[in-house]
C-alpha cells in the first residue's frame, strides 16, 4: 500500500497562486510536492516574470531555495507572497 501511495504522489499536482506584491498581480502555477522554490522561480521566468532578488513567503515564513512544496506544507489553493528585497 505504501508503494502505491508513493507512486501516486509523483502524479499529484497542486494549483497555487503567487502574489507579486510590487505589481499587485496574482499568477497561477501548477506544482508538484517535490518541486523546490527554485523550480517555482523557473516557472515564473517561463511566464515572463523575473523573481530573482525576490523572496517567497508562505504563512508569514520565508521559504528557502532548496525547500520543497511538501516541506513547506503548501497545499492545493495556497497563495505564496513574492516580495522584492529592499
UniProtKB/TrEMBL annotation:
UniProt signal peptide: none
Provide a GO biological process annotation. Answer: positive regulation of wound healing
Q: Show the GO cellular component annotation of the record.
A: cytoplasm
Organism domain of life: Eukaryota
Kindly give the InterPro entries that the UniProt entry links to this protein. Ubiquitin-like_dom, Ubiquitin-like_domsf
Residues annotated as domain Ubiquitin-like: 14-86
PROSITE patterns (UniProt xref): UBIQUITIN_2
The protein's name is: TINCR ubiquitin domain containing
Amino acid at each position: 500500500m505504501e508503494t502505491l501511495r508513493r507512486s501516486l504522489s509523483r502524479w499529484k499536482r497542486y494549483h497555487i497562486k503567487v502574489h507579486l506584491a510590487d505589481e499587485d498581480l496574482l499568477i497561477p502555477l501548477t506544482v508538484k510536492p517535490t518541486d523546490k522554490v527554485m523550480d517555482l522561480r523557473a516557472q515564473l521566468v517561463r511566464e515572463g516574470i523575473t523573481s530573482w532578488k525576490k523572496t517567497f513567503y508562505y504563512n508569514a515564513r520565508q521559504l528557502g531555495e532548496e525547500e520543497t512544496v511538501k516541506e513547506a506544507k503548501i497545499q492545493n489553493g495556497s497563495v505564496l507572497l513574492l516580495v522584492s528585497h529592499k
